[in-house]
Amino acid sequence: MRAASRYGLWQNGDSPIFDARPILDDLTSALALKPNHLEGYFLRTQAFAQSEPPNYAAIIADVENVLGRSPTFDQSVRAIGIALLAHEQCGHISQALAYFDRWMALIPQFAATYATDTAGANTALHPRTEIDPKMRCALAEKARFLQRSNQSELALECYVEALKHAPDDAQVLSETGLLAFTLQRYDLAADCFNGAAVWESQAASQLHTELLEQTINVAKVENPTLYVAYALLHMDTTYLRVDLCDCSDTVLFQKCIVLAEKALVLDAGCSTANLVLARAWGNLGNVEKSIHFFEEYFATATNDVFNQARYLCSD
Questions:
Q1: Start-to-end CA span in the chain (Å)
Q2: Is the pLDDT of residue 154 over 90?
């Protein structure tokens, strides 16, 4: 290597710029002598990135130099990550996605190598500890890339795939929930926030519990059927609301009935459940059942709620 004093700053107008040219010359000379020195290529990609302007084509070429020289799994992923950043900076969406495919294709190869290396040892290949985290990482990064590229629907699909490999990853659950909420997939958002609240720390858990509640409240207004469907999925009667009957959705009324009946199993004196059943059966045209549950409601309601029921019956 030549003297380190060669590596300095040069002026670009009033701004000092790191001079990468001497480093590039030295690295190129070194790699000509040792073409299989992979760290040399990684160092050269950094120098290309610090050039003015950055030489993304040269960065990608050096990534291919690394990938063509039997790198380890970690070196391959590191090289692919550099190529992804370079293509993203250039706006090359399809080329970047192709590198994501190469990343995920490496994981089964890693599994086979790992199984061979550990044959006869006490360490056995375990998908949850060795394979799933790597696949989750690749899929989650692909989802983030697609989201940055304004391909939200595809990003959500990748997030969902990532969760299959890491259903207890609070960060991926949170990111999936936020994107699902943006896309008005309130059922998926609620499930993700609920999962994140379970797996994260107490402070973060509180945040995701609040996001869950917000999601459910928005869903109640914008898509009541999904709102009740979520409640039914988890059999959580705390999401039972009388105002869900203020619409003309027959399917929604039927779901409300199922949820309200569940509430009565848990608490035979649940006045809200009786009122929901009365109104839902009334909207479905079953006057006999509607009257029955209104009577049950009157028998269990407090005075304030009783007055509200009398008002509803007068409609």
A1: 90
A2: yes
